[in-house]
Amino acid sequence: MMQKNQQIECRASLSDKRVVVLGGSSGIGLAVAEQVVACGARAIIASSNAERVKQAVKTVDGKPEGHTLDLSDERDIQNFFHEIGDFDHLVFTAGDALQLNVLEATDLAKARSAFELRYWAALAAVKYGSPQIRKGGSIILTTGVAGRRPQKGWTVAASVCGTIEALTRALAVELAPIRVNAVSPGVVRTNLWQNLNTDEREHLYESVGKSLLIGRVGEACEIARAYLFLMQEGYSTGQTMVLDGGAVLV
Fold first, then answer.
1. Tell me, what's the pLDDT at 96?
2. Long-range contacts, stretch 73-78, CB < 8 angstroms, 24+ apart
3. What does the alpha-carbon distance between residue 216 and residue 104 come to, in Å, rounded to a whole number?
4. Running DSSP on this structure, what letter comes out for residue 21?
5. Is there a domain that residue 2 lies in?
């Protein structure tokens, strides 16, 4: 039997922890904020859409902090982290609709812009946020299964997702002992697909769902549980957790 002073608490409590969720005003980020608050943590939600931030603060029990933050502006990111002070976990879920197009029809200027929010903003957030993460804290980024199982027309999307996985591993080495991991969702019912009309969205969910091993697309609340696990389990770093309904297998 292990001595008391050698015992390891297998699941760290989130009670009274401060969790920063960038992109937390909707979708997976909002679900993460809701769940960490339910576990006793204090959520700090930041997003570029002031109205959605305001609504998210009303939606989430526990009165989370809400901040409007331009994630395309490095100085704004720096000022945000200076303002909020020390915290425990940084979650980056901000993203826009992935660009899906065959290579010959790809606008390279738009392709470069795809990296601005998903990669450069994430890197800036880690640069300015990591010095304020308390002992035992962590960083969780967000990627997608396009990098692991690309399809025709997914060149840019796969490149962005693959870059985030590589970034996760590199940051885990550089920032140790801060743990850095990523979550890689498949198709999930979120406003990521808001560029499609209602009928197109439902057709997408139905057609993709039928192709998956579990027979449906994911829900934001299911994916959010992975972020909570990575905050609490305390031992993994440099890893990408895939939640895709079996998409990489079919």
1. 74
2. 74/124, 77/121, 77/124, 77/125, 77/128, 78/124, 78/128
3. 32
4. E
5. no
Dmax over CA atoms of the chain, in Å, equals 64
Domain at 152, CATH number: 3.40.50.720
Q: Residues 105, 27, 116, 133: is their CA dihedral positive or negative?
A: negative
Predicted pLDDT at 70: 95
Q: Which domain holds residue 220?
A: 14-243
Q: How many domains does the chain have?
A: 1
44-70 pLDDT tens trace: 999 999 999 999 999 998 789 999 999
Mean pLDDT (whole number) for 215-236 = 96
3-class DSSP state for residue 42? strand
53 domain-assigned: yes
pLDDT digit string, tens, across residues 128-175: 999 999 999 999 999 999 889 888 888 888 999 999 999 999 999 999
8 occurs within a structural domain: no
Decide if 7 is inside a domain: no
User: Is residue 239 within 8 Å of 182, Cβ to Cβ?
Assistant: yes
Give mean pLDDT, residues 199-209.
86
- Looking from the CA of 129 toward its CB, the CA atoms found within 13 Å total 33
Chain length of the chain? 250
Two structure tokens written together for 215? 């027979």
- Give the mean pLDDT of 16-33: 96
Handedness of CA 13, 15, 19, 24 (dihedral sign): positive
Point out which residues pair with 138 in neighbouring strands: 89, 179
> Is 221 in a helix, a strand, or coil?
helix
| Encoded tokens for 214 | 């579990």
pLDDT, tens digit, for every residue of 93-124? 998 766 678 888 888 888 888 899 999 999 99
